[in-house]
């Protein structure tokens, strides 16, 4: 169990460590000085606050120790003043180091005065129960502050972890978007290659059709021409045409690409065009989200306490003289007033998530294509009917 002696002797340990670390920094270590100075301010303010709230009110109740309260309060006041001046000093200036040394001297002198004057008086004037009650209250106050600091540190770590997760998520979304963009470009490239191959195939098919048509026309031109009737063959002078000679029909046959084949089988290809639809990605708009800082008024109520000195006269409990009497005596009692100390913390109020959502739509692409059709007409049947009609007329 911690005693009042151990409490007073060990309380400034952490502050001394922070003073030593702050004194070892250079003018270039601005961020380190700001961090160490913030920790030192919290520690000094905690020590002074716990003394003023739990120790000094008890010391004022005892005649042996009440005179020690005023010098201790003055030391705390001087420490706060030098600490405020140090906060206003630029952390990278040459004046910062000497002011740290001055504040350290004042604090260490205050610690020596407490150990030399205050501690013996406290041990002599206070009972064990009073001393232990003070120790417990101060320890509870330190525990509450430490718990608050741990909670704040945990909140900061959670915020930092959340920021890292958001950054990683954003990076993953950017990578995914880049992958989709790369896949889209690759699909466009494959589509373009497919279109090029299809065009080459179509050109090759057209060339083959043209070549087949030319070969068919050549066969028709070299085949013996016959109507299938001896009478009409004789009339048109086709009977004596030697085999192997080619007769070409002029006029409408050439214009309509009419081909007469003597082969047993002819293959007429019927081709058609096909639609090949590709895709490309175009920028349709840009959404910009900019975070900026604004200042808004804020207020919060805080309960403050003032201690005023009240002087009153009353009838003595007994008329027997106690203590010193009939001598000059001056009693000073310090009046105190609490003033609000404003600090600022940062918490995440809300989050703005910027992401891209992919939606799917189906569009109908319309165009015209060309294709081959076939028309079949039987000229042989019409010739047979004509021959039948001529035979009937001769009868």
UniProtKB/TrEMBL annotation:
Biased composition (Low complexity): 193-204
Domain Hemerythrin-like: 15-121
DUF2382 domain residues: 268-376
Top-level taxon in the UniProt lineage: Bacteria
Residue numbers spanned by region Disordered: 143-210, 376-395
Compositionally skewed regions (Basic and acidic residues) per UniProt: 143-192
Full protein name: DUF2382 domain-containing protein
